[in-house]
From TrEMBL:
<dbReference type="InterPro" id="IPR015991">
    <property type="entry name" value="TatD/YcfH-like"/>
</dbReference>
<dbReference type="Pfam" id="PF01026">
    <property type="entry name" value="TatD_DNase"/>
</dbReference>
<feature type="binding site">
    <location>
        <position position="171"/>
    </location>
    <ligand>
        <name>a divalent metal cation 2</name>
    </ligand>
</feature>
<keyword id="KW-0378">Hydrolase</keyword>
<dbReference type="GO" id="GO:0016788">
    <property type="term" value="F:hydrolase activity, acting on ester bonds"/>
</dbReference>
<protein>
    <submittedName>
        <fullName>TatD DNase family protein</fullName>
    </submittedName>
</protein>
<feature type="binding site">
    <location>
        <position position="25"/>
    </location>
    <ligand>
        <name>a divalent metal cation 1</name>
    </ligand>
</feature>
<feature type="binding site">
    <location>
        <position position="111"/>
    </location>
    <ligand>
        <name>a divalent metal cation 1</name>
    </ligand>
</feature>
<keyword id="KW-0479">Metal-binding</keyword>
<dbReference type="GO" id="GO:0005829">
    <property type="term" value="C:cytosol"/>
</dbReference>
<feature type="binding site">
    <location>
        <position position="221"/>
    </location>
    <ligand>
        <name>a divalent metal cation 1</name>
    </ligand>
</feature>
<dbReference type="GO" id="GO:0046872">
    <property type="term" value="F:metal ion binding"/>
</dbReference>
<feature type="binding site">
    <location>
        <position position="147"/>
    </location>
    <ligand>
        <name>a divalent metal cation 2</name>
    </ligand>
</feature>
<dbReference type="InterPro" id="IPR032466">
    <property type="entry name" value="Metal_Hydrolase"/>
</dbReference>
<dbReference type="GO" id="GO:0004536">
    <property type="term" value="F:DNA nuclease activity"/>
</dbReference>
<feature type="binding site">
    <location>
        <position position="23"/>
    </location>
    <ligand>
        <name>a divalent metal cation 1</name>
    </ligand>
</feature>
<dbReference type="InterPro" id="IPR001130">
    <property type="entry name" value="TatD-like"/>
</dbReference>
Length: 274
């Protein structure tokens, strides 16, 4: 059983329409070189996950993601400083994040936001950094990719106070139907990770049912949050296909319809070539 827990889940049948993994961490999945990235994205493509957005949470990861996005045409990047790492976020860090965020293949500013679950960074430092990233996304005309953990009210308040960018993506959406409706009304996009497939995630299930097409994405957040029934095992971008199929079942829609919605929304949100 222990060995099985360390194994990747099987690669599922190819989706009828290709999709984008809207949020993954290729470096945390173990990719270091261009060959590693190609091998990982090859596996994803076998499942119908044709493109991925690899996301940074600190400066080293941001530099790597930006570089990795130039190694393979199927890979794009998002860069920011994760809220749990904002205890020290001064002019030098801001200058480097902005330099990287201007990259041609960097399609979003993220992941940024608020995390009140972990006690690594004071709330005031997180909020100041979040406001700075909001401004950066607006200045660059790129999507804002939000990390929101146990902080729904403050995230929504700060977006209102600062004025949200044109495109806001709630990565690994964790709210219930009530929070989802508030986000939908604002035009925000909700990205569902493997957590939506968990049997006890009733609030997420209700949220996923009500989100209109054009306002939801699918992601892995790999190597974390592997979809059911492989929860606890390593995750990779190809597992997006499991989540897409679950969303289709949950919403009572055809798999090809949900996959098409996921792909076209990702293309619009991240300004990807169609």
């Amino acid at each position: 059983m222990g060995d099985e827990k360390r194994e990747l889940p099987p690669i599922p049948d190819r989706l009828p329409v290709t999709v984008v993994d809207a949020h993954t961490h290729l470096d945390a999945c173990g990719a270091k070189t261009a060959a590693d990235v190609a091998e990982m994205v090859d596996r994803a493509e076998r499942a119908g996950v044709a493109r991925v957005v690899t996301v940074a949470d600190d400066l080293a990861a941001a530099r790597w993601a930006s570089e990795a996005s130039t190694w393979d045409s199927r890979v794009f990047a998002a860069v920011a400083i994760h809220p749990t790492r904002t205890k020290e976020f001064g002019p030098d860090e801001q200058s480097e994040v902005e330099r990287l965020a201007r990259g041609e293949r960097v399609v979003a500013v993220g992941e940024t936001g608020l995390d009140y679950y972990w006690d690594y960074s004071p709330h005031d430092a997180q909020q100041a950094a979040f406001r700075w990233h909001i401004d950066l996304a607006k200045r660059l005309g790129k999507a804002l990719m939000i990390h929101d953990r146990d902080a729904h009210e403050d995230v929504l308040r700060i977006l209102d106070e600062e004025g949200a960018p044109e495109t806001v993506v709630f990565h690994c959406f964790s709210g219930d139907e009530r929070i989802a409706r508030r986000c939908i009304d604002k035009g925000y996009i909700l990205s569902f990770a493997g957590t939506v497939t968990f049997k006890n995630a009733r609030g997420l299930h209700e949220a996923a049912r009500i989100v209109p097409r054009g306002q939801f994405l699918a992601e892995t957040d790999a190597p974390f949050l592997t979809p059911h029934p492989y929860r606890g095992r390593p995750n990779e971008p190809y597992c997006t296909a499991y989540t897409v199929r679950f969303l289709a079942q949950l919403r009572g829609e055809a798999v090809h319809e949900v996959a098409e919605a996921v792909r076209t929304t990702a293309e619009r949100a991240y300004q990807l070539p169609t």
